[in-house]
Write a structure and sequence with these properties.
Distance between the termini: 15 Å
Radius of gyration: 13 Å
Helix content: 10-25%
Order of helices and strands: EEHE
Shape: elongated
Largest sheet: 3 strands, antiparallel
Strand content: 25-35%
Number of strands: 3
Length: about 70
């Protein structure tokens, strides 16, 4: 579902020293509540980054998530 819609939103991630995702926030909406829920579930399923972040990395990490239909 997440790949068959067009949207742009920002995700903020807080990463612990061991690389686990402590917390996330979704800024904005896809415009469809069911897709917003799917995105929240996908982010909640994040386990751990392969490499831990640098100690001085600013938090939260901000990412833009874009989905475009081609």
């Amino acid at each position: 579902k997440l790949r068959v819609s067009e949207y742009v939103l920002e995700v903020r991630l807080w990463i612990a020293a061991d690389g686990t995702v402590d917390r996330f926030e979704i800024r904005g909406s896809t415009g469809r509540p069911e897709l917003d829920d799917e995105l929240r579930l996908a982010l909640a399923d994040l386990r751990r980054l392969r490499n831990p972040p640098p100690r001085d990395m600013p938090q939260p990490l901000r990412m833009r998530v874009t989905s475009k239909m081609s």
